[in-house]
Design goal:
heterodimer; A: 114 residues; mainly alpha; globular; B: 126 residues; 5 helices
């Protein structure tokens, strides 16, 4: 329980600072620190993200920073993508989830550094 | 062209989200800047909106596959505002560059841990 509280705090902090849902923090911590399998960690992360992202979107929306049509233009096609992505995840070894996530984290870190 | 690019990035972000449990912001933010002309702040804020339907549908599918620990997920979500407040306080005391470099360091640390874990899977595990 206290580990979940730490994960929540760290994910919330990064979400507020960088406009992300917090999944890039939640999934690695659930896998490496809380002993979740990759599929469980990613599924649990996706369950938490809508609430975290809604709080952030409402806060930013009140400040007039959210472009709703453009958000939907990217968000609605992504629904089709996530149906494929979740299906695909069940077809491959969980190790590939770790590999893909590690690659994404490195790419994202490099973008932040340079 | 911009519309096609935006839709393509959207689909790619969705696939990545389903595969890795991220919300897709890592692709939405650059996509919104590059194809739809938003500022960095506008893109980060709008990305949060785009993430909501993706993660909701992803969580629904993962629940059907038996991969969601709902109580843990909701606990993390419920406690996350504490972190958001902590983040805002930190942002007031640290430079943006220091924040970017710390986040990058955390991401590289996680990537190292995940890569090491992936290498340790035995051949028989898949």
């Amino acid at each position: 329980m206290w580990r979940l509280a730490v994960i929540a705090t760290v994910a919330g902090a990064f979400s507020g600072l960088f406009g992300v849902g917090g999944g890039g923090v939640m999934v690695p911590l659930l896998v490496l620190w809380s002993g979740y399998g990759e599929r469980e960690a990613t599924g649990t992360s996706l369950a938490a993200i809508p609430i975290i992202a809604t709080l952030g979107a409402v806060a930013q929306g009140l400040s007039g920073n959210v472009d709703v049509p453009k958000g939907l233009l990217m968000g609605i096609p992504a629904i089709g993508g996530v149906l494929v992505g979740t299906w695909l995840q069940q077809q491959v070894s969980p190790r590939w989830v770790s590999v893909v996530l590690a690659v994404v984290l490195v790419a994202s870190a490099l973008v932040l550094i340079f | 062209m911009e519309i096609v690019g935006a839709i393509a990035i959207g689909v790619a972000a969705g696939v990545l989200s389903g595969m890795t449990g991220l919300g897709g912001g890592v692709l939405f933010v650059p996509g919104l800047v590059f194809f739809l002309g938003l500022s960095q702040l506008g893109a980060e804020s709008t990305s949060l909106l785009a993430i909501i339907p993706v993660a909701l549908v992803g969580a629904w599918r993962q629940n059907r596959y038996g991969n969601v620990r709902l109580r843990a997920g909701l606990t993390v979500a419920a406690l996350s505002p504490i972190g958001v407040i902590a983040g805002v306080l930190l942002a007031n005391h640290l430079s943006e560059r220091a924040l970017e470099l710390s986040f990058a360091a955390v991401q590289l640390f996680f990537a190292f841990g995940l890569a090491r874990r992936a290498l340790r899977y035995k051949a028989g595990d898949g």
